[in-house]
Amino acid sequence: MILSALIFILVAGGLLSWMANRWHPDSAKWVALATVGIELVLTIWLWLQSASAMALPAHGGWLAETRAEWIPRFGVSFHLAMDGISLVLVVLTAFLGVVSVACSWTEIQERAGFFYFNLLWTLAGAVGVFLALDLFLFFFFWELMLVPMYFMIAIWGHEKRQYAAIKFFIFAEGSGLLMLVAILALVFAHYRSTGVLTFDYFELLNTAMSPSTELWIMLGFFIAFAVKAPIVPFHTWLPDAHTEAPTAGSVILAGVLLKTGTYGLLRFVVPLFPEAAGYFAPVAMALGATGVLYGAFLAFAQTDFKRLVAYTSVSHLGFAVLGIFAWNPWSLGGAVMQMIAHGISTGALFVIAGILQERTHTRDMRRFEGLWSVMPRLAAMGLFFAIAALGLPGMGNFVGEFLVLMGLYRASSVLASVAAVAFVASVVYALALVQKTFHGENTHGWQLHDLSSREMATLCSMAAITLWLGLYPQPVLDAAPDIANSPPAVAAAHQEGNAE
Amino acid sequence: MNTLPSALHSNLMALSPLILLAGSAVVVMLASAFYRHPRPVMMLTLAGLILSFASLFLFRGIGSRQVTALLVLDHYALFFIGLIVAATFVVAVLCYRYFGGSESRHEALYILLLLAALGGGVLVASSHFASFLLGLELLSISLFALIAYPRFTERPLEAGIKYLILAGFSSGLLLFGMALVYAQLGTMQFAKIGTMLTAPDQALELYGLAGLALIVTGVGFKLALVPFHMWTPDVYEGAPAPITAFIATVSKGAMLALLLRYFLMAGAHQSQPITLALSLVAVTTILVGNLLALLQDNIKRILAYSSIAQLGYLLVGFLAFDPLAIEAVAYFLTAYFVTMLGAFGVVTVLSGGFNNGSEGESHRVAERDSDRLADYAGLFWHRPWLAGVFTAMLLSLAGIPLTMGFIGKFYILTAGVEASLWIPVIVLVVGSTIGLFYYLRIIAVMCAPSSQAITEPTMRPVASPSLGESVTLAALALLLIWLGVFPAQLIDVLEGITVVDLT
To answer: Which residues of chain B make contact with A180, given a CB cutoff of 8 A?
Structure first.
């Protein structure tokens, strides 16, 4: 029950804030804030409830479950369930929801009702993706979050918004349809071997398939998630979409939507196709390592603040992909940690970019310079999150990257050393970002007012979470990789696959 | 022999939906002869359609029934008759204001609509070449007149003549094809053709094969499948918007339902060359339809190419040839009907319409419908509800969740994957990805800032929709979303549909 509530609160809140806008122009954002606030409180309550359960090594893994008939003809049910990973990601989604409402507080003036409607529906789609355990339902939410995101970019975006929005939508939808075909192929493979037509995750686990079928079906899933994650050859939509989206859109894209890709790899690709994934893992890890380096190198060639941050996402998510395909407790813990930490730190950098854009109407770093003297608080925050992004010990990203490298070293020492180079590259881009934007003389004569208390509160809470993740990561690690710590069917199958 | 009257009685009962359609055409004709006023005539038309629709439910208990050798009224036929009648109802409502409301004399339009619907109904129920041709001609001949109904305007006339030539040509091909099949097998009943071909040493010889190919070609013209699609965009653009909706839905839907029945009953799907050719046609239809739509700047032309592509998707499900294929085709067609009616409904509502009554010059005659992309700029901000409905329809055509189009596409893909039709399935995926581009383009234009739209010189005063139109569009949009979220209700109905083999 509580799980469907998590989705329907957002859906209803979206409709409500759209309607509220008609009565009073300012009310939309309050309704939206209340909605995401309730969502956040609920998810944190869920986490506290289950924290004790998750600390035990041998709990079943699933904290809550809802199931209802939906389309009996195809064996499709409305099946939601939550385990540690879903929980952590839902908490992240709710938190970034609050952040994105807060950062659009003054940015969005026109048609605010429709904006918050889209924002909340994107979040609802993402929460649905993290909770759905029926493949049809999963696909339903997967596609559902695209449309409102498209509107957010296309209506409230920056200069090249139409191009970016259409590119984003076509990449996501095209790869999504490929995944739908793969889902159907899997379902019918299952149907042929057992005679049961079902889209249920648990029943489709351990479907008997010939190795080549398994590989093809796995590739269908992989491409869809690789586009979303993004893994390198499929990443070209990302810099455009992130750059052109309004601040809240960038925060949600980077913080939540990219995570649906890595979540899909973690939840579906490896468990459903353990052997094919094991066979394919070297390729996937090579792609991940390429992404780590390529994203980092391209990042420091950028002059657009948001574009730079967008490329760092490619680099950071590469670590998560590496961690997932190395598939051992350290690397998985690291991957989840990386997903969360990246969501917070990159989200914060986009918030900073949004604040700068709102005041200066530009994102071109060549036109900034010397902002430290004008906006010391913003500059300090910028420095903090840039350092977090480069992976300084004591912050969340470091824990994630370190664990991934540690786990990866066991799988492939070569790739681990390649990926470790990224630490150097990330220092370069992060410091270049700080240098170009905040240091030096204020030659352009900017006269800007510093952070308001609303902005300060947003960024400080994000900074606190980054520090907490870096200094005491255990709660997330407890919650997250229990698929590896206490393997249910999933990891066991994988290990059998490896053993053979 | 004394069972004969009761058999006759129940045959007539089974035929009642079609009889009611024909009867209401006569009543409407007489009524308009005595009292020439469009409002009561339209009300009579709608009443006739409702009666016919209701009779589908009243006599459903009779079950499948072969009525003479010509018609078979099974669940399959009843479902599609229902669909056709409902679509005609929507088109009739849309026509009223568009053709001038109570100020113009457009009563004949409703007679033609009823006759066209009757033709469609006969097509989907036919199990014999004779009824096939009868239904087809009834449908096409009414359509010529409907397309060219605003007869003082250039474009509809041009479109009407194009359609006339095309329809004549395709009927000719069909007739010749039927003759060839008859020459080999000596029967014109679908079911008999089927049983003859399943006999061990029987297969279609060159005659029969050529005949089948000609039939498929003739139907292909009507369905606007790709090598035979040239007429579609011109006719769609030229025809009055509600009539375009009628061509896109009823005419195509009835033909496709007939073709599927023919293939399943007459065993044509066992002929390798024909299915191979059809899959080739499906693939090219999807690709060409979607690619050419990218080049258009006119909403009606975009929708025309989009409907070509949609028919290509349908063929992918069609090619599976099993019970699931029938369900998939039926669901997708329903979704397609709702979507196309909604989309052209919005175009209709935005268009000034043809107002030329007998007085001619005193009324403003629209040169064209509101069908340029520029007419839709900023629609989201000055007509939010209309733009919302149109967006929902476009997203449904693109197959995005929460709409029927998504479930329809899912159904088609399911049927395709089940039958392992990998190439058509992959092409479908590629095609719908291309398709997104032009659907999103329309949506993007509608979202454009409204300041641009106001300074646009081509912006004309837009007509305000009548109550009937608003209610119809709202109902279509609600249906689209309701059946997109809870498809189980429609699926339950569809599961009963099979092409029963009654000999």
So the answer is: 410, 413, 429
